[in-house]
Amino acid sequence: MPDAARVLESDKNCPTLALVEGAGRAHAVAWPGVGSTLRSMTRFWLGPSARTVSQEHEMEAVYYVIAGEGVVNDADAGTSQPLAAGAMAHVEPRTTYQFRAGASGMELIGGPCPPDPALYRRLAATAAEV
Q1: How far, CA to CA in Å, does 89 sit from each of 6, 65, 116?
Q2: Which of 30, 96, 106, 125 would disulfide-bridge 101, Cβ 3.0–4.6 Å?
Q3: Are strands 61-74 and 51-52 parallel, antiparallel or unpaired?
Q4: pLDDT exceeds cutoff 90 at 125
Q5: What angle do CA 40, 45, 49 make, to 5 degrees?
Q6: Can you list the domains of the chain with their CATH numbers?
Q7: Each residue of 59-83: pLDDT tens digit?
Q8: Whole-angstrom Cα distance, residue 96 to residue 65?
Q9: How far apart are alpha carbons 18 and 91 in whole angstroms?
């Protein structure tokens, strides 16, 4: 029986997700590949003025800003809200959103709950090809 409580490291062994436009990267930390069925967490490092791809999920998503500053854009409402270290962003279900880093970049972690299978389809296809 696997451990009921595990420490998941955000490191080079986490799969990279194609979710960043510009300088930066995104790693899956808590996702179905490690047994997570009710929560997903992706760690983003966005360089100056970099952004995430636009996303939309069937369920809500929550993100925490670890460092830096930027904005979260709500494409459906046509609005942007500022973010800084320590802020949390809550995204309602079926809302199209995107994060954009400011001049110093931004680091954040979070994701949809439950995990959105669309985020991991490319990983599954790549694993099946190997």
Answers
A1: 26, 8, 18
A2: 106
A3: unpaired
A4: no
A5: 125
A6: 20-129 (2.60.120.10)
A7: 999 999 999 999 999 999 999 999 9
A8: 19
A9: 20
Task: Give the H or E element holding residue 74.
Answer: strand 61-74
Asked whether the beta carbons of 105 and 48 are under 8 A apart, the reply is yes
Amino acid letter at 14? Answer: C
Whole-angstrom distance, CA of residue 89 vs CA of residue 63: 5
Query: Cα separation of 106 and 101, whole Å?
Result: 5
Q: What is the CA radius of gyration of the chain?
A: 15
Q: Is the predicted pLDDT of residue 28 greater than 90, yes or no?
A: yes
Contact, 97 vs 88, CB < 8 A?
no
Amino acid code (one letter) for 53? V
